[in-house]
User: What shape does this take?
Amino acid sequence: MSNTSTNQIWQKVTSVDEIPVLGSRIIHAPAGQIAIFRNSEDEVFAVLDKCPHKGGPLSQGIVFGKTVTCPLHSWNIDLSTGCAIAPDEGCAKSFEVKVESGVVWLNRQELDTSHG
Ligand code: FES
Assistant: This one.
């Protein structure tokens, strides 16, 4: 179970069940619009919903393994780092995620830090 100090670091944002498999769910935070992805292994990733290429909505991309394909120009973004897969370059901010008993938590400090 979480104790008080844990809850100061982590903020509950959604549950795994509320994220479509191979899809995502958006949350809004001071850090910006964040896409929470779930893959076929029920792994959860959180990345700023802004493609490093031209800001496309990654949340609307297709998830495959640990990557998402941007719907605009099909760059593949590594969900664990937020970075484009070579030969493309650039990174979207990725967020630390903790999943515990089906609940998805994000690092409170990261959520509260604006990234422009
Ligand atoms: S905006 Fe994502 S690939 Fe161009």
